[in-house]
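User: Second chain of the day. Same drill as before.
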Amino acid sequence: MNNLYNVIKKACLTEKGMHLHETMNKIVIKVDPRANKLEIKDAVENLFNVKVANVRTANMHGKQKRVGRMVGTTSDWKKAIVTLAEGHKIDFLEGL
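Assistant: Same format as last time:
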């Protein structure tokens, strides 16, 4: 990926993601499906000025949705669980 801002899409604000953030110093983010672990690590370190210890990724498949008689699927997306190094913290989730 050429631009760091294209790698990270948005934070994944779920109950599990908030629990990981509060207890294990991990953040869950939605990333570009073409991004690899090294690009995700570089983007998080440069954008938030933190040290990343580990990155785990998962490809999430879109769910089937139905509107009346029409059946379609939501888009596939990629999730990254980023473990921050000890002593580092991201505060963008604190206000929620």
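The chain is about 25% helix and 35% strand.

User: Great, on to the next one.
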